[in-house]
Amino acid sequence: MKVAIVGAGNVGAACAQRIAETDIADVALIDIAEGLAVGKALDLAEAAPLVGHSRRIVGGEDYTLAEESDVVVITAGLPRKPGMTRDDLLAANGEIITQIVTELSRTAPDAIYIMVTNPLDVTTYIAHQILGVPRERIMGMAGALDSVRFRTFIAMELGCAPADVQAMVLGGHGDSMVPLPRYATAGGMAVTELISSARLDEIVERTRQGGTEIVAHLKTGGAFYAPAAGVAQMVAAIVRDEKRLMPASVLLRGEYGLDDVFVGVPVKLGAAGVEEIIELDLTEDELAALHNSAEHVRRTIARWQDLQDA
Ligand code: NAD
Question: Structure pTM?
Answer without folding.
Answer: 0.98
